[in-house]
């Protein structure tokens, strides 16, 4: 491998300016690709489109029956007001001509309909008294749109399959129509609903992305200034890794990876992980440039020696991330793709642009504006007193690490036993960690669209639903409609969280004096009288009907697990009260689809973690061909995974689509530290050191470098804590803690573990060799 990288080193050295030109061209190409990135926040980001549940939801419900509504809520004084109804009527007229709007439903349109039935005039009455009388005499008609005397709702209906762009256009058209409708000044007008919430959330995600990247950059400047001051151009790794991020954005657009709440958190993580690659190349090149063995040779030696080592670390990190591809949650798979692409781009940026830039800047180092600072902190430029102080400080860090190593090895069984017990305790506690899939809890709780949506829920009650798709041989079959009526009544009366039911049955009974006809022909005649827009909400062709159960604020009240249990109860009730022969019923809808996420975030995340362990273990064995070298880096990371479960339980942090990735993330990031420690341990041992001497040298020589590397990673993840999205912020907190735990395991668990196992293997080899020698002597004596 080193021969191949040596050839690459010569290529880079001989084509430095061409490489920078190509890098610049790729920036332009990446910027074009970044414009193709789409925002994603719908159901498809949680549940795979190949899932049977999603297929039922998408093909049977969303494309046929589902509609979405932007809600205009009017609040203030008495809403049974002629002047207010005239403004609502003007709003109706403007919105009905808007592209993508199926219909508008408002108190004004209903009042005109009732007035037409009473007087033959399809107009708004002129007096408040007439309007109040119409509303009071028809409570069933107006109760949903006028929940009380000071609130009114206007529903702007669009297709459930409308694209994000179409929803945003209709939202803006609604906001414009509200301003042109000239509502009386004493009323407050709020435009809300799920589409408004989603549009606002996408905008918030887009704006917070820049904040997260900016904070990551600031944190990196701080950490580089303190841990990377011994080289020239010490801040250069930051623009190098940011270049890798630009390339990642471009690849993201061309490949078609959408930007979701999960994937946008990948970029601060990539800065924290990827900057380590740039630091390794930068540090080694500086070392080679100061050897005075030729400037040209410095690039070659850097690529030859550092390239393979960093590539192995990247490979193990990538294997940990690959396990994310097995998740059934699309946004987690996209997160894994983004991380894998990102670390590759950061590596390429570091080995090409980073190395070339440092080598080109070498002759301009005297012009470096940070040169004076660098000279003050460079050992060669210090006075005797400062040298002694620096030497004492440097030695103190090494001495502390050596003492820690001695202590952990002296009490190796106790240390490993406590670490193991805490791991098992954490794994047990992890089973009790709650799972959260309510999208409203993921976003900033002060987000205006969320506040408005919750305010509307407080006024009119929850709108969560269970949707039952009923496939029949004939939609006019009276037996089917009577079963729907009886089953709906049974569920509403007998099930705590089912508050009401709506279907074509209600419209049929309204037209037939409160009863269902006994013949198909009578039902067909009633169908002919029902407006097509109303009928399409509950019936499709001759073979499909829809029954909706209103379950209030179930997502908030009983959570997704409760909805899953309620769905199972409804299925059991259908077995007890079966539908007529030839009828099949499928329960679907947004809330039912999210039950798929439960499985993904429980058994799915455990499977991801163990797959990641297996992949990294297999990768290490392929690289080293040594079972000890393969297993030793894995054990500390497995222990950290257990500790992480305990941390989440103790901090009361719920599992979300993001925190479900922690196992794979710990493996991907943390295994690097153990691998670097192990590499140096066996390097010292091959040089003739005993296991104790080797681990001492490892802790003192590479320990401080690993701490510095860990600090850059921690600071990269720290930006996530400042995210306004609670899901990302909690993920950042746990990830920072987990990286610190990985560093703790590297210096506390790894030393006694490798010394214990390596010593045991040496003894076994010695015993085996002694046995062979004894057998040879016995065989010689017999001869």
Automatic annotation (TrEMBL):
PANTHER family on file: PROTEIN-EXPORT MEMBRANE PROTEIN SEC, SSD DOMAIN-CONTAINING PROTEIN
Protein name, as recorded: SSD domain-containing protein
Topological relation to the membrane, as annotated: Multi-pass membrane protein
GO CC terms in record: plasma membrane
Record's subcellular location: Membrane
Single GO BP term: protein transport
Chief place where the protein resides: membrane
Source taxon at top rank: Archaea
Species whose genome carries this gene: Methanosarcina acetivorans (strain ATCC 35395 / DSM 2834 / JCM 12185 / C2A)
Gene3D superfamilies: Multidrug efflux transporter AcrB transmembrane domain
Residue ranges crossing the lipid bilayer per the database entry: 209-228, 235-255, 261-279, 306-326, 338-361, 409-429, 606-624, 631-651, 657-676, 702-722, 734-757
Pfam family, any one: MMPL
Alphabetical UniProt keywords: Cell membrane, Membrane, Protein transport, Translocation, Transmembrane, Transmembrane helix, Transport
SSD domain sequence ranges: 234-360, 596-756
């Amino acid at each position: 491998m080193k021969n191949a990288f040596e050839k690459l080193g010569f290529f880079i050295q001989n084509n430095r300016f061409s490489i920078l030109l190509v890098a610049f061209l790729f920036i332009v190409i990446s910027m074009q690709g970044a414009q193709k990135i789409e925002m994603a926040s719908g159901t498809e980001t949680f549940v795979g489109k190949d899932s049977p549940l999603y297929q039922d939801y998408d093909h049977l419900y969303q494309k046929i029956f589902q509609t979405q509504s932007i809600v205009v809520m009017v609040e203030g004084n008495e809403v049974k007001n002629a002047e207010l109804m005239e403004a609502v009527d003007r709003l109706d007229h403007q919105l009905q001509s808007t592209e993508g709007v199926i219909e508008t439903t408002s108190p004004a349109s209903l009042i005109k309909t009732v007035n037409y039935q009473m007087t033959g005039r399809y107009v708004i009455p002129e007096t408040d008294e007439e309007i109040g009388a119409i509303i009071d005499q028809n409570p069933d008609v107006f109760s949903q749109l006028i929940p009380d005397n000071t609130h009114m709702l206007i529903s702007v209906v669009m297709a459930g399959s409308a694209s994000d762009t179409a929803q945003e256009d209709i939202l803006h058209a609604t906001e414009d129509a509200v301003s042109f409708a000239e509502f009386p000044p004493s009323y407050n007008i709020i435009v809300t609903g799920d589409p408004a919430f989603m549009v606002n959330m996408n905008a918030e995600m887009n704006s917070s992305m820049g904040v997260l990247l900016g904070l990551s950059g600031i944190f990196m400047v701080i950490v580089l200034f303190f841990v990377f001051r011994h080289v020239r151009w010490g801040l250069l790794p930051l623009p190098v890794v940011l270049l890798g991020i630009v390339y990642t954005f471009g690849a993201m657009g061309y490949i078609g990876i959408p930007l979701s709440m999960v994937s946008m958190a990948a970029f601060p993580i990539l800065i924290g992980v990827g900057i380590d690659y740039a630091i390794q190349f930068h540090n080694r090149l500086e070392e080679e440039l100061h050897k005075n063995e030729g400037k040209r040779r410095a690039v070659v030696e850097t690529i030859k020696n550092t390239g393979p080592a960093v590539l192995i670390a990247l490979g193990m990190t990538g294997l940990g991330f690959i396990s994310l591809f097995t998740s059934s949650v699309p946004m987690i798979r996209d997160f894994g793709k983004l991380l894998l692409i990102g670390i590759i781009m950061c590596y390429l940026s570091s080995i090409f642009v980073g190395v070339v830039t440092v080598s080109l800047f070498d002759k301009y180092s005297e012009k470096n504006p940070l040169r004076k600072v660098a000279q003050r902190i460079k050992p060669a430029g210090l006075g005797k007193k400062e040298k002694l102080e620096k030497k004492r400080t440097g030695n103190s860090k090494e001495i502390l690490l050596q003492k820690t190593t001695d202590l952990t090895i002296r009490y190796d069984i106790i240390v490993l036993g406590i670490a193991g017990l805490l791991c098992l305790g954490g794994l047990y506690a992890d089973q009790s960690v709650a799972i959260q899939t309510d999208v409203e809890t993921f976003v900033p709780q002060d987000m205006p669209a969320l506040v408005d949506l919750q305010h509307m829920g407080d006024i009119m009650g929850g709108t969560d639903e269970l949707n039952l798709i009923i496939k029949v041989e004939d939609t006019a079959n009276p037996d089917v409609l009577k079963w729907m009526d009886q089953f709906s009544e049974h569920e509403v009366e007998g099930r705590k969280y089912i508050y009401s039911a709506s279907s074509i049955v209600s419209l049929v009974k309204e037209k037939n004096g409160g009863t269902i006809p006994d013949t198909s022909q009578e039902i067909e005649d009633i169908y002919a009288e029902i407006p097509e827009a109303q009928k399409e909400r509950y019936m499709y062709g001759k073979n499909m009907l829809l029954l909706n159960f209103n379950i209030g604020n179930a997502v908030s009240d009983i959570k997704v697990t409760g909805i899953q249990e309620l769905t199972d109860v409804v299925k059991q009730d259908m077995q007890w009260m079966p539908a007529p022969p030839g009828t099949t019923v499928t329960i679907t809808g947004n809330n039912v689809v999210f039950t798929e996420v439960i499985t993904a975030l429980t058994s799915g995340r455990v499977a991801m973690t163990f797959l990641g362990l297996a992949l990294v273990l297999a990768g290490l064995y392929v690289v080293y061909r040594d079972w000890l070298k393969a297993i030793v880096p894995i054990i500390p990371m497995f222990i950290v995974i257990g500790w992480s479960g305990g941390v989440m339980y103790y901090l009361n942090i719920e599992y979300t689509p993001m925190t479900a990735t922690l196992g794979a993330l710990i493996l991907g990031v943390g295994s690097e530290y153990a691998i670097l420690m192990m590499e140096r341990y066996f390097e010292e041992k091959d040089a003739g050191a005993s296991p104790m001497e080797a681990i001492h040298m490892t802790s003192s020589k590479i320990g401080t470098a690993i701490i510095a590397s860990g600090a850059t990673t921690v600071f990269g993840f720290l930006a996530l804590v400042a995210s306004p999205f609670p899901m990302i912020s909690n993920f950042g907190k746990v990830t920072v803690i987990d990286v610190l735990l990985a560093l703790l395991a590297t210096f506390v668990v790894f030393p006694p573990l490798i010394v214990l196992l390596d010593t045991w293997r040496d003894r076994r080899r010695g015993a085996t060799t002694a046995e062979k020698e004894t057998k040879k002597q016995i065989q010689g004596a017999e001869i």
